[in-house]
Amino acid sequence: MVRPVLKIVAVLAMALVGALAGTVAGATAGFAYVEIAHTSTFDGERGLTVFFGFVPACALLGAIALPVVYLVMRARQARQMPSADGGGDFTDGEWPG
Q1: Which in 36, 39, 67, 90 has the greatest CB count within 10 A?
Q2: Are 63 and 22 in contact (CB under 8 A)?
Q3: How many C-beta atoms lie closer than 10 Å to residue 21's C-beta?
Q4: Tens digit of pLDDT for each residue in 74-97?
Q5: From the CA atom positions of the chain, what is the Rg in Å?
């Protein structure tokens, strides 16, 4: 059994990794957008669009999405593990699926 503190640390680590991945994805998507939309370069409008629009939004999305995916995968994995009494999920003699 994993301690609750370790679960919290794992979720926070996934949030940090998700935010970093979202930042990279946001910068990439933002640069692609300003190139496709022919955004003006006057007064750094391209940079402002990317770094105040796309990067924070994608970082927030990644910080939320990756821990949710992690928790869903952990819940599915815990549901598929056989019980300690040896009964498992195969009570009818057939494989799940």
Answers
A1: 67
A2: yes
A3: 17
A4: 888 878 766 555 555 555 555 555
A5: 21
Write down the pTM of the prediction: 0.70
Tokens 């926070």 sit at which residue? 12
Question: Six-digit token pair at 94?
Answer: 């057939």
- Residue numbers of the domain that contains 16: 11-79
**Angular region, 81: left φ>0, alpha ψ -120 to 50, beta rest:** beta
Q: Is residue 15 part of a domain?
A: yes
Q: Which residue has 């750094």 as its token pair?
A: 44
Q: What is the 3-state secondary structure (H, E, C) of the chain?
A: CCCHHHHHHHHHHHHHHHHHHHHHHHHHHHHHHHHHCCCCCHHHHHHHHHHHHHHHHHHHHHHHHHHHHHHHHHHHHHHHCCCCCCCCCCCCCCCCC
